[in-house]
Amino acid sequence: MDSESTVTTCYRHPKVECHVRCVRCERYICPDCMREAAVGHQCPDCVKEGARSVRQARTLVGGRVSRVPVVTYVLIAVSVLVYLAEVAKPEIVDRFAMVGAGLLGPDGDHYLWVDPYPGASARRGWWTGSGTGC
């Protein structure tokens, strides 16, 4: 009797004829049960078994990787709240104005900021994002 004439069926679907074997367990699998692997196809049982041995991803410092960026959402919420507070009460922003804006000099006048390098903007290169690029 010819060994190729025997009908092989899927181990999960006994009525379905198939000719492909799982690369891990060598059982016959039908097209519905085939799961692509790096080399060949695997049965669903071998895929589940392989998934159990995969380690969970970790961050650089060893924490769990989350799908929801909680810190980003908190920073956005705080920014929106601060903006709404500024719109509702502008004096809140005035309270946190530059520290040097309210300083008085020995003669009673306000200090004035002076550019320590006058004309330096013409000498800036391309790396500063402004100037002539020379």
Structural features, described:
The protein is mainly α and 134 residues long. The chain has one domain (1-117). Helix content is 25%, strand content 6%. The chain has helices at residues 44-52, 70-88, 91-95, and strands at 20-21, 28-29, 35-36, 41-42. The strands form two sheets. A two-stranded antiparallel ribbon has the order 1-2. The protein has a two-stranded antiparallel ribbon with strand order 3-4. Strand 3 (35-36) and strand 4 (41-42) form a beta hairpin. The radius of gyration is 35 Å and the shape is rod-shaped.
Short key terms for the protein model shown above:
single chain, mainly alpha, two-stranded antiparallel ribbon, 3 helices, about 25% helix, rod-shaped, about 130 residues, 4 strands
Largest sheet entry: 2 strands, antiparallel
The main sheet orders its strands as 1-2
| SS element count, helices | 3
Category by helix and strand content: mainly alpha
In whole angstroms, the N-to-C terminal distance is 89 Å
Sheet-strand content, in percent, reads: 5-15%
The unreliable regions are: none
pLDDT average, as an integer? 78
